[in-house]
Amino acid sequence: MAFDPLDFHATAVGIESHEDVTEMREFLVETLEDEGVDPRVDDAGNTLAIREGAADGPHIVCNTHIDTVPPHVPVEVDGEIVRGRGSCDAKGPLAALSAAFLDAEIESGRLTLAVTPDEEVYSTGAAALDLDADGYIVGEPTGLDICNAAKGRFEGTVTIEGVAAHAAEPESGASAIRAVAPVLQAIESYDETVGPPEHDSLGRPTLEPTVIEGGEATNQIPAECAITVDRRSVPPETQQGFHEQLEAHLQSWIPDSMTLSFEYTERETPFLEAFATPEDSDVVRALQGAGAGEIRPFGAATEASYFAADAPTVVFGPGVLADDEGAVAHAEREYVRRPEVERAGEIATAAVESLLD
């Protein structure tokens, strides 16, 4: 049977996948099987399917995810608009890339559809993939633009340790809370003195303190204070490099009577690092030639960061993160335009065909 991306999309948006992706994954597997494909689900919950051409050639991967953020918003089809949770993030891109996977005429090489189960949380599915590809098209709402770069995101805690004392005798201790002021100044100055230079397309990185915790009693000089920081990185900064440089920079701002350390927030998978794919790479040119929009950075962190370390990677799909009225993805008013879902499928199909001709 012929795959209908709009029917698939409307059904997919109606399936709750904010807490458990089992039903949505089963629907995807059944759809692929009905189209004559033999998909498999790996130990990490990824849905994988492969098509191969008659001759040797590059390996191209179409990737997106099936999980959504809570709460579930029921599907509503209103003319050319589909509303509901996941309509643009990322079941619209899933419908488009599924169309490309199923409809593209493959002369040579290999095409893989890799759909992950938990992009919105820890990305354990994507972290477990080892696809050894030559190019990746990652489905997210880009308004049909070609997003060839994105900032990374790191999160960690700066811990300042002083000496506890009675508040009536403050000079007998070393207040960790008082040390917060110079440390905040040091955080503010980090990118002016230590951080990477402004990136051509992503601009400057950001480093923001988001949570401060300290003190145990109202009549005690506090021995410890913690500052949580949010880092949005740009190339060439790495997770390890940022850790080492930030800790060394901040330590130079506190008194000798105190100590300071920085540790990343514990998580099951690596943080998403910044990436930038050259505009002249084959996968960018293929989407350009197929009629995609402008080349620009993507506005959010995605699993594309994991794949970009392997091969040229772009983010592409129907829908937008936000419009003139405000947030769209992850919002109560999440929506996507049906003609854009169809057009995304046509563009992705043509791009894959040009890469695997």
UniProtKB/TrEMBL annotation:
Record-linked Gene3D superfamilies: 3.30.70.360, Zn peptidases
Single GO term (MF): metal ion binding
InterPro entries: Bact_exopeptidase_dim_dom, Peptidase_M20, Peptidase_M20_dimer, Peptidase_M20A
Domain of life: Archaea
UniProt cofactor(s): Zn(2+)
Cited CDD domains: M20_ArgE_DapE-like
Domain Peptidase M20 dimerisation positions: 149-251
Keywords: Hydrolase, Metal-binding, Zinc
Similarity-based family: Belongs to the peptidase M20A family.
NCBIfam families reported for this sequence: PRK08651.1-5
Record protein name field: Acetylornithine deacetylase
Species for this entry: Halorientalis regularis
Upper lineage: Archaea, Methanobacteriati, Methanobacteriota, Stenosarchaea group, Halobacteria
